[in-house]
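Ticket #4471: structure export looks truncated?
Reporter: QA, pipeline team
Priority: medium

Steps to reproduce: submit the single chain below to the structure queue and open the exported record.
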Amino acid sequence: MRSLLDGPLHDLFSGAHLLPFYYPIDDADAGFDPIDHTRIDPRLGDWDDLKKLGDVVELTADLIVNHVSSRSPQFEDFSAKGDASEFAELFLTLDRVFPNGASEAQLLGIYRPRPGLPFTVMRMKNGEQRLLWTTFTPHQLDIDVESPKGAAYVRSILERFQRAGVRLIRLDAVGYAIKRAGTSCFMIPETFQYISKLTAQAHDLGIDVLVEIHSYYRDQIEIARRVDRVYDFALPPLVLHTLFQKDAAALGAWLAVSPRNAVTVLDTHDGIGVIDVGADARDPSNRPGLLEPNAINALVETIHVRSQGQSREATGAAASNLDLYQVNCTFYDALGRRDDEYLLARAIQFFAPGVPQVYYVGLLAGQNDMDLLARTRVGRDINRHYYNAAEVRSELKRPVARRLAQLIRFRNGHPAFGGTFHLPDCNNESLVMEWRAGSDYARLDLHLPTLKAEIVYSSADGQKRFSVTELDAAETTK
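Actual output as written to the record:
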């Protein structure tokens, strides 16, 4: 990582989000099920190596709030000793949340991003059977973050991050962290209170907070008021909808209200979310989405068509991770590997309010890894190709990657992006996005019928402009 950031990527990124690097990185959920959240997998390095990397870029690390591995030492102790274990209060069982029992209606009212109820029957080492709360997989045991042991567990991770120089944490799965009987157990009022409390703890240690939640778009606006940064997960499907339908009305409606403290993305290690633009499942009639259901269906089907059916093989029942709200596909393949449209999508992202983040596969305009998908049968692996160092350097030389690097440098270097965002025009045929800081300005003019876009910007030599779809692919990357 350091050689890449010192080398071919040296002028592209000021920060890096390192996906889970805890021990182990290759268990049931690619590091999101840590056995030891305070230990770096030794195959990657150690905390001193991480601290040195922080000298090159600002580091973002995941704080996996909701769960821990079923192979963690804490659960091993609980499994052996039962309620006599010092960690018994760390793990959520059904009766911890429903001490008086749960009705059918209460159980069916629990929100889960995958089919079925969020419980797993565990045979403990002491011979007992317990019904443990497992929101995601049987290998990821939900913890009681409100218990003294849970609070101490989270605090120990924060303190380890502080010593290593981590300056931004991504709260993974925090929307599921608080459970209350008779509620959906997802993004309830107590969840917002917990996020605020955890953010205050992080601030005391000099750490900012980025919240990762796929949810109804108005929830994202509310969350943004309470934390330093949120993801703009509505942007990826809206950008695809805009380019597929050649209509920016829905995107414009979102940009008018979207959080200004967002981290903007088109792709991540997960799939392309659609829940973020849909109606609120808890009250769809009164809380409609940014896209109508038929538009979402058309969006998903177009991704399947443009990816030549590959995304269909990796999504839903076709793959072992049954996320209900994501289409698994690289963003480049979602657009049918059309370089110009891919650059247009990135231009929209870079002009949207917030700080842009580019996923490593997206940086290289990566294609679906069908071999990895065939080996693992985990849908999200289609967008998690394992690049070696030579492959990274080779892919960076592709014209589409070089053109993307030009856009990144423009976004990094123009002073207008230190100012304020404006949306002068957005309708069925055109999208105009602008940033201004004093006399400096940068504007993206997108003409949807032709899918042509121009960037107009101020410079010391007066106004200049260039076409997004006619960037100089011959420019070499430093």
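Status: closed, not a bug. The export was complete when the record was re-opened. Leaving a note from the reviewer for reference: The domain at 73-141 is CATH 3.90.400.10 (Oligo-1,6-glucosidase; domain 2).
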